[in-house]
Write a structure and sequence with these properties.
about 475 residues; 15 helices; elongated; alpha+beta
Amino acid sequence: MRNANWEIVIGLETHAQLNTASKIFSGAPTAFGAAPNSQACAVDIALPGVLPVLNRGAVERAIRFGLAVGGSIAPRSVFARKNYFYPDLPKGYQISQYELPVVVGGAMAIKVSPGDTATEKTIRLTRAHLEEDAGKSLHEDFQDKSGIDLNRAGTPLLEIVSEPDMRSAEEAVAYARALHALVRWIDICDGNMQEGSFRCDANVSVRPKGSDVLGTRREIKNLNSFRFLQQAIEYEARWQIETLEDGGRIIQSTVLFDPATGETRAMRSKEEAHDYRYFPDPDLLPLLISSAWIDEVKAGMPELPEEMKARFVRDCGLSAYDAAALTASRETAGYFEQTLAAAGTGHAKACANWVMGDLAARLKREERDVTEAPLTPQQLAGLVARIADGTISGKIAKEVFDALWNGEGQDADAIIEAKGLRQISDSGALEKLIDEVLAANPKSVEEFRAGKEKAFNALVGQAMKATKGKGNPQQVNELLRRKLG
């Protein structure tokens, strides 16, 4: 990208579908995958004479989000009508919030690169407001016609608007991932991007480096994967820079990203707020949120990721990197805590290593979520305990892990006994085997005594082979050293 002399400026508008059982202004269900138009009631399709009734659960989820990001919960907010005409918008307007949103301000902390060297940055939030979703236009199965499915009409959304604080596609993706993890952590959105429960609009502009004047932005709509978000921003920024360097100008507009070509294309000129003719919805009273209501929601909030990370470092002695990895999702954190509770606090590092290592790798390979792991936290804790007390070695533990995963036993102890995997720690038995190994490998013994350390490793390997992997590695090493002088 020819961006040495340019700065990219990005802000995201994210729509998180709130996980209420019913819609924001009606009692119609919000379940995904129903037959077209089977979940659209009279209120959703705006039949004459119907009136909207606000869903209390949607408001409580908005309050929960505001508390999680340190925003201000407005004691009084107002619903407005946003007027525009699309075939899938049955009322001819969308009920949203404009001048007085339910949440103002707040911030999200992001890490741009992985590991302990990650760069931390704070992304400010402008607002978060409640609104209803529109329906969906379907084009694929109708040849020269389009179909309209109004099942999504009235589905509750929380639109989360960031300040234009991001300066690269990587930062935008890091922010989107952090926001995605947070809304799932506080249980206000299932985060299913394939089903449209979490989708982003990216406002992208460029300006000469050193300038504090914002360039003309173009808004990329409805990005429903982190990969598409990154590709779309990178292409759009490159296109804008090339256009300006070639003497062209950027026209404010709404664009779509085509995953097939990796390109953005203009859809329409970008509307301004006055084009939507916002005005307070006369059918809805102002939303009043008392301090007592906020306190009630706060009392039911889970421990937030940053708080849990600090606790893992402080109380469990884990590194900041380990704590961050374990709190990447609420489900992973819960699995670790249950494992640790069963194993005991003295085994925090071992439990963390198994959860982040073998467990995570196996889940990724089989494309499963941690909630679908066939190995329970209690079973994993039992395995950790048998390593700690010397019953099995770390190498044998992997075999036991696989057996537990495949359902070959109820717990580690049963598998160890059934397969005869108990570690050999008897000094007499090990000495006898080591004597046989030394007698059978005189060349390696001679090389070690001549100063070649690699020869010792070869003898360790032969000794472990003689014990069929069941020898206590520490004892094998100590006995070999002693016998070799």
